[in-house]
Amino acid sequence: MNIIKKYLPKRCTGIIILYLLLSVNFNCSHEITEPASVQFSARVGVMDTSYITAGIYRQPYVPGAEVSLFSVSYGLEYVSISNNSGQAYFENLVPDLYNCSVKRIYPEDTVQVYLGYRREEVLVGSKAAFKMGSAADSFRVLLKQVPRTPFIISEIYYNGAPPPPPLYFHDQFTEIYNNSSVIEYLDGMVIGDADYGYKEDPDYMYSIHLYQFPGNGSDYPVAPGQTIIIAQDAENHLLKNVNSFDLSQADFEYYNPLSNDIDNPFVPNMIQLHHKYGIDFLYSTRNDAIYLAKLQQEDTLSYGPFDLIKVPKQRVWDGVEYKEDVTNYEVKRLSDDIDAGITGGLPGYQGKSVARKVFKEVDGLKVLMDNNNSSIDFQVLNTPSPGSLE
Amino acid sequence: MKYLLKSAALVLLLTALLPAQWLQYDPDHELAFQPVLQDSIRNKTNFYRFSGNIAGLSEDENAFSLQTGGNFNFVSGEYRLPFDPQKSDAGQYYIQLVKPLTVRDMFKGYFGYQRLADYSVMWLHQTRLLQINSILLADSSTGDFILSGLFWNGEWAHQFSRSLSTGIGIYYNVDQRLKQVFPKPENRHRDIHVKLGIQHRWKNWSLGLAYRYYDEQEKVEISRYNLDQNLTPLLFKFRFSDLPVILRGKTSEERLFDYHGHTVNPHLRKVFSNRLKVLGNVGYAVSRGKIVDGGSQPQDQGQLKIQSLNGKLLGEYTTGNGDIWQLAYNLDYLNYEAELPEFSTIAISRSFEKHRVSAGIKKIVKAKNSLFLQLEYEHYRNQFEDRMTENLYRFQYHAASLLLAANLHLSARWDNKIWGGLKKYFVYHNTRTDNKYTEFFDYLFIRPYDYFTGRSADLGGGLQFTYHYGPVFDTEFSFNYLHTLASQTVGKFYNRNKIILTISLKFFII
Hints:
- With 390 residues, chain A is mostly beta strands.
- Chain A has 5 helices and 25 strands.
- Chain A has 2 domains: 37-145, Immunoglobulins (Immunoglobulin-like), CATH 2.60.40.10; 151-381, no CATH class.
- In chain A, strands 11, 12, 16, 17, 18, 19, 20 and 21 form an 8-stranded mixed sheet that branches. A 7-stranded mixed sheet of chain A has the order 3-2-5-6-7-1-4.
- With 510 residues, chain B is mostly beta strands.
- Chain B has a single domain (2-508), classed as Beta Barrel (Porin).
- In chain B, strand 18 (455-469) and strand 19 (473-489) form a beta hairpin.
- Classes of the chains: A mainly beta (390), B mainly beta (510).
- At the A-B interface, helix 2 of A face strand 11, strand 12, strand 13, strand 14 and strand 15 of B.
């Protein structure tokens, strides 16, 4: 201590004390405090601008709607029922991108009492891939009647068969289903794939390939509950890959007459309207968007940039988007009114397909889900089922 | 000569063995060969080694020399974090040149190759800032990682006058780390550090300011595997304390982790007399990092902010017969914050705080032989806060250590050292919230805290042999052994062993 007093003039003391203070005075608290939280509460308002809810409840706010929030990054699902004011409340949400789907089913009895006709009415709405980080991100969803398009895409097998041999993609198929209760005709309908970068165009789909069902209007009827298979190559693929299946009995086949594409003479060919590249109409084994449309006589197809064919968006009946990364909403091909979600999540050559879920059965006929959101409507099948529903 | 050799060895230990990721903070405090480090300071305590100020290079080195050698680490033992390697071997080989360019300019540069083998590493692909990274990339396999890389460093110090000197330096490292089993993630690093320093002497005061800018990058790639082999990797991204693990069956993935920052170190030295010196140093560093996944379709995976503060105060008193008394205080504080992708919201916060007070004495026994004794007290706090799931984990410990060393001047050509030490841990506070963790996350992140609370004691010892041959060359060999003893479950003890070998040969160009 004497040494320190002798050699430590007063003017130095301050500096050293300053250093000591600087060193020891930093965050000395040892009390345990509750952790801060980023969880938040939010609400979703549900409204119906059609006559249905107004006719039943005399207001546009929809009570009793099932509102689901799906956390894109974490796979969490939150479900709440809207109250009499059409508000659904959620607690303990975490900041993330969310998909929202809303569903309200009015049973036949209720519709008959209030609206005067006997039919079940289904209202759906959705909001896709939006950021929610605080209560200020509460929002409203407008419901609409489910457009009962008769034909929907019920299954897409795009993935390719596992090796051997490697890279076997020739057994791709698309299954179309008559989701209505009456006979419908495939004649003249088209199937195309949507390219990236044109999602925001309100008027047109931009396609790399476009193929049309043959027929003069009544040649290809499809009964209620019937499935139709369109194969890339209508042959028995088991002869080439034991992990594949037999598509020699497919209903239609994509055929490119300008290449050495396989042609099964016993299977009707789809008519090639546009084919930008490739030996055949090959779907990507990882990321793509396929749609079904019904062109009218007055429609004129034109071309967009990069040799893409333009199809009027209002003619689209159904569309499905699949990706290897189902959380990647930042880059989508289809707009929300066609498909607000993403299905798939499959790496290539797994031998799996994506198939639409069954919503309900009516008089023995399966009615498939159609919320225009493949995240909700579709599931992955480990074993594809061409020609049948899961 | 011996001081030159010791200085070079020390600098190499501090620089060449430092992890290339400058901010990779290791909260553990192993017993270090502190008596030698303290004893290696020459007659003048210089800022080059105390504060890392390269403006003080001329005080540390003043001879034209060429040095080569190697540093080797061997780590093994079951006391480890779940994702630490079961054992690891590391080797660095270097060549160094120190040359006075003019009477006022000094240059020092070294170039080296390093190889690190980590055995039986579970899951994780990344190597940097693991416990703060909110979204970790991993796969389902356990395997060996082999890293190989090159590094080099160049420094130039210039004396404007007797009282003013400056320095500039650059450090560059590239390495590649490859997992030896499917899906064989490849991990590459690229690091650049730019260092500036200025030092001013006025009467008995020396003031210095060191600045460092660093830019470090880690890139992880998993390339598409050979499809003929019909294998699909199972890739994970771990998120937070209680949220589900996301399973992604992809065949390829890419992650880019970039961070850059600044460090500022003001420091001062006051020489009260030939016997009493006080040095103080404060360092503050701040950096920001960003993680992006997806390669050609990049997806933001969040940002990191890192702040660190360290302070040192050292007082040294030399008695009339050459004994040295030392009193030192060290503070280390580090705070990490991880932000969510797309949101300016802090999801994870992690902080470490360590205080150390030590007192030591070097007693001259006979001629150049001496004994060294040091006592140290340490207080440590570690806190992890997950704001997504409202979970908090915090623990603290005290530790006390005793180090003994002997410096033996056996002949004009031989100098040897021997040391031994014991550190005892006393865990006294351990708190966590009662929220439920998933079993998986508990194993990955919460059990690491059991790793700290189970630590019982560290034992260490070592030998150093130094041979001088006139003014021509010095050669040195050292062996250090560290043993950690811990109890992670009741009644069962685990240990971890670390062996450090160094060898160097330094030629003086006369």
